[in-house]
Design goal:
With 219 residues, this protein is an alpha/beta fold. The chain is built from 6 helices and 6 strands, in the order βαβαβααβαββα. α1 packs parallel to α2 and α4 crosses α5. The chain is globular and about 70 Å long.
Length: 219
């Protein structure tokens, strides 16, 4: 008598997309991919807080954008799980025409910049939204395969994280930046059942810390 093989149990894998912590930017410029922008003291505190938040999670892979602020955010998380940070340029911030400038609504509406704002599918930073989504999806799929049955953390940036979330949830990719749900040090957690995306959860482990810092500044 031949035994009937048991059906395979689906593998549950979680990929956390984390936005980096606060950046030291006293001059208030839009820094984009510029070198030299690292975490502020508050940003480092945020990274440590999220590290403690994820301390008991089954994390076997930590990936980060090559930019300093992402690497510094990822480092304590990786160390707490005995891992090294894997750098992936596919999760880097988008290029930005306005890098290094102080950008206000008045600046954006100046006639000299109109040619950069004509196509909502290819925003001012020059990288189309669908390109951003595609590179993020490729990085997520690789992380999911490597961490199959466990959890992975990818430290990236607000725009790439929000863009790929829109793609996964079937929403249009072009959007109002003011309405992104992706605060500093937040987690957008993708849960997979085998190869299938099961759910997307959003959390802000550093929300209280950020609120306290905001109250202190406003005091």
């Amino acid at each position: 008598m031949t035994a009937t093989p048991m059906p395979a149990v689906p593998t549950r894998t979680v990929v956390h997309l984390m936005r980096h912590g606060e950046v030291h930017n006293p001059s208030g410029v839009l820094y984009g991919r510029l070198d030299g922008y690292h975490l502020s003291d508050l940003g480092r505190e945020m990274a440590e807080l999220v590290t403690r938040h994820l301390e008991t999670n089954d994390i076997v892979l930590v990936v980060a954008s090559p930019l300093d602020r992402a690497q510094q955010t990822a480092a304590p998380i990786a160390a707490s799980h005995g891992l090294t940070v894997q750098t992936d340029p596919r999760v880097v911030e988008s290029e930005n025409y306005f890098e290094g400038r102080h950008v206000t609504t008045k600046d954006l509406l100046h006639p000299s910049h109109w040619h950069k704002l004509l196509n909502p599918l290819k925003p001012s930073w020059g990288e189309p939204y669908d390109h951003i989504a595609a590179r993020m999806l490729a990085a997520i799929d690789e992380a999911r395969r490597v961490a199959a049955g466990h959890e992975a953390v990818i430290v990236s940036h607000q725009l790439p994280i929000w863009t790929v979330r829109n793609e996964l949830e079937g929403r249009r990719l072009w959007h109002d930046p003011r309405k992104r749900e992706c605060t500093l040090a937040s987690l957008t957690s993708l849960a997979y059942d085998g190869d299938d995306l099961e759910s997307i959860a959003y959390s802000e482990p550093a929300a209280a810390l950020l609120a306290r810092a905001s109250r202190s500044v406003g005091a």
